[in-house]
Amino acid sequence: MPSSDVPDVSPAPPLFLTPSAIRQARRKAQLATLHVTMISIGGIIGAGLFVGTSATISAAGPGVMLSYVAAGVVVWLVMQLLGLLAISARGRGSFVSHIARILGPRAAFMTGWAYAFLWAVTAGAQAVAGGLVVHALCAIPPLWAALGFIALAWAVNRMALRYYGHAETGLSALKLIFLACFIIGGVAWVACSAHPFQQVAGNIFGHGGILPLGLWAVVAAIPMIMQSFAGCEISVIAATDSERPLRSIVRTMRRLPLYMLFFFAGSVLVILALLPWNDVQPGSSPFLEVMQRLGLPFAAGAAATVTLLAVLSCLNSSVYVVARVLEELSACQLAPAWLQHRAGGQRLWATRLTTLLEVLIVLWAAGSPKGAYPLLLGASGGLILFVYFMVALAAWRAGIGKYWGSVTTALLFTVVVLMFFLPSTRLEACLSLGLVGGLGLVARLCVPARQATCVK
Fold first, then answer.
1. How far apart are the C-alpha atoms of 416 and 227, rounded to whole Å?
2. What does R_g of the chain's alpha carbons equal in angstroms?
3. Which of 54, 129, 62 has its CA nearest to residue 285?
4. Where does the chain cross the membrane (predicted)?
5. Which of the residue ranges 10-24, 149-163, 421-435 would you say has the lowest mean pLDDT?
6. Where are the domains of the chain?
7. How much of the chain exceeds pLDDT 70, in percent?
8. Distance between CA atoms of 35 and 427, rounded to whole angstroms?
9. Is the dihedral of CA 68, 129, 431, 118 positive or negative?
């Protein structure tokens, strides 16, 4: 029988939506895969890249390139395991739900709250850095400028989810364009110089060789660089708000760490090719130094502009991911139930609590810039390694990834142990361990060993 003779028996669409269907439609995920990737990039590329790169170069010299490759490999492995965990759960929930399901609610409590604390402190630090830049440009008090950044990030996060995705995509795209232009411009300048190979070889090999501070310095820089890669995991968290979670997870878990390694390592390689590594001063912006070395008249303005964009973009991603994790902790009965409250599809109370935490951190920084605030930053420094370790442990325990799960767990454990032996990271490791221990004590006292599975 011809297909045209087959009657159409598909049910007609309903003329009216029920109230429950309307609520489900409002809660429907509206992020595209591009949004997911860009939100993650927004968290990774903050003000720390444009200034913090100087610390890693000063710590290891040209050998820092080996540190970037090693750290990138470890983060790539973690992303594969995190993606496999998400795929095994059919794209539902973040690592908080996966750890609760595999390692138990106490482990999920420690991991989720440590992660939320990490990004709340990161957001506060970004706001403080942005306030200082604004103060240097137009003499606005840094405290008010920092609070202004937080208010702006809160307003952006109050947008509808798709519009928020558009806004963060635009900000992240501007940062990527700057980095791409920086890399291309540096390569072009070297290629057009009179003796390009002699100049590059002189800058990289002419000041103590490729390992001027020894191989141990290369190893010591790995924990710092891994912390700068924090944010890759946001893509898997944001994928749960996307139209096609599994597709977003598969794409980002494989590509995002490689993209970030290219932009980070490519930028550092250009800096090393154009500047002697011992001319890079910790705390300064090597990007600004390179642009000034190239004679660009707009160097200072460009560096300040991209730093402010990075601050706002990182703040946006931080508010989003903390609110998302707090909501999931609440769904897992590991946080107050009111954190699940939504209004117009937005995570109302989770976003408010996140913004309040950031304001308190900024006020803390203003009141004790050389006392408690550095300790707060130090306590958050090693938490991303703890979170990655728990993800790898959950994957290994669940038999996901098999060989790579055990390898990644061993590598992360080695990096954590290194932090305790290195003078530059020992205090940070001890403070982070103290915070994790405190969370473990609270979990032991307040969280039952077994409870209901996370509900969404």
1. 12
2. 23
3. 54
4. 31-53, 65-87, 107-128, 134-156, 176-198, 204-225, 256-275, 295-315, 349-367, 373-396, 403-423, 429-447
5. 10-24
6. 31-446
7. 91
8. 37
9. negative
Ordered DSSP codes for 70-133: HHHHHHHHHHHHHHHHHHHTTT-S-HHHHHHHHT-HHHHHHHHHHHHHHHHHHHHHHHHHHHHH
Sequence-distant (6+) residues with CB within 8 A of 232 are: 40, 44, 75, 78, 79, 256, 257, 260
Q: Is the dihedral of CA 219, 224, 225, 230 positive or negative?
A: positive
Residue 22 has pLDDT above 60, yes or no: no
**What's the pLDDT score for residue 345?**
67
Alpha carbons within 13 A on the beta-carbon side of 155: 7
| Fold for the domain defined by 31-446 | Amino acid/polyamine transporter I (1.20.1740)
Indicate the pTM of the whole model.
0.87
Amino acid letter at 244? R
Whether 389 contacts 416, CB under 8 Å:
yes
pLDDT tens digit string along 420-438? Answer: 888 878 888 898 899 999 9
Mean pLDDT of all residues in the chain? 83
